[in-house]
Specification:
Elements: H1 2-6, H2 10-33, H3 41-50, H4 54-63
Helix pairs in contact: 2-3, 2-4, 3-4
């Protein structure tokens, strides 16, 4: 198991994980302060948290209700 972890190219994966976490945090904070969304807020929370990198991007493109 430890040998497998050593063979993972962390130089490529680590930035993706960091970008994913930053997008998730920003999307959740934005969802908290916005009043109206396209769909229920709890659904957007689940999408943001569980659909990895595409969830927060989908929220910013589709989820925010344009005024």
């Amino acid at each position: 198991m430890i040998e497998q972890l050593g063979s993972i190219p962390w130089a490529i994966i680590a930035p993706l994980i960091i970008v994913q976490l930053i997008l998730m945090i920003v999307a959740l904070f934005d969802l908290r302060k916005i009043h109206a969304t396209n769909g229920p807020k709890i659904l957007w929370v689940l999408i943001i948290v569980f659909v990895n990198l595409l969830g927060p991007i989908a929220y910013f493109i589709v989820g925010r209700k344009q005024t």
